[in-house]
Amino acid sequence: MLKEKNNIVTTKSDILNERRKNAVPAGPYNITNLYVQSAKGAIITDIDGNELIDFAGGIGMQNVGHCHPKVVKAIQEQVESSIHSCFHVAPYESYIELAERLNELTPGDFKKKTMFANSGAEAVENAVKIARKATGRSAIVSFERAYHGRTLMTMSLTSKVKPYKHGFGPFAPDVYKLPYPYYYRAEDGMTKEEVDGQILAYFERFMLEEVASDNIAAIILEPLQGEGGFIVPSAAFMQGVRNLCDKYGIVMIADEIQTGFARTGNLFAMDHFGVAPDLMTFSKSIAAGMPLSAVTGRAELMDAPGPGQLGGTFSGSPVACAAGLAVLDVIEEENLVKRAREIGDRMMEVFNSWKDKYELIGDVRGLGAMTAMELVKDRNTKEPAAEEVKAIMQETHNKGLITISAGIYSSVLRFLPPLVITDEQLEEGLAILEAAIAKVSK
What we know:
13 helices, alpha/beta, CATH 3.40.640.10, CATH 3.90.1150.10, globular, 18 strands
């Protein structure tokens, strides 16, 4: 129902947004002011009855789609039998079974173990704890443009100051940052090999000038930077980092919170690079929207903390674990790894054709169904087009397509559609997106 007041149409979402302003602080930001009534597959229906195609997927949380029937059934069955006894008090089989499956599926031909937490930030915090305990070292190295969370440690590892870090310091000590490949914005004429070589050489010099190698517990990186702008490194760079970690006894942590569970056209993004990290962190699509995260890694590292040093009251709840097991079944049964490649191939094909039509599009990149366009005001200067990105997002939201942004300059449109999206929905979403780009380009 629409409410008419002073010739201005007020929607249910408008009314709820006013209540939100009075009851909820500004910090938990909303990309849209459209309030959800229901969601199914790749379609979200708001409380005013508007249907929107979802190209955001809960920022990569809905790889198997909203309310997949098998996930819903698994949650319902678990809730009917037991909601939560706390794994530390009275454990349950689903925690162990999900751990066994992740140990088997993740990269690396070595014995692994898995622990569960609630959020991606908690997984990263625990990975840092494990690395420090196992090595007896304290320093942690992350990368420029990284995003790892909003807790004290994960903010410290994160690179983008506004909005994530501004005014929240001082941050955790003994955290350092290295450059990460950004081939589109590299110095003119530099090849990928030269960019990689320069960064890897700097890493060795950094350990002489800034912090000794025997004090570095871990280096953490996203195999494809998410909030940083969907920056894809080369396999050579990733293998170079792995070699340096081996050389100096540093734990390599891969943050697959946004990239995991078929999103990039492999079950895990690290599979693209032929590299097995020592520890991996997961969340988002691990349980299709239920609060769950995980750290999976080498058994000898995972066993370093003693009893009581890892975990939490709600960590690895049976309801979330049941959802996680269903997610793995759906990915396998519906071959969503293959579907991610098909979606990604189609999106990249279209985006590259648009690049020839619209000067606004400076770069197109991605892995599988994790794709992005970087917008620039001028292709020669590569001046970021942040306002244009904002205008395009607003236009797509008005026309029935949910889109989100990323990048250190907020000038990247990033796309994470559910992998169950139909061809028709994908094409309709792309048509809305192009119309918005064309309108803003004028």
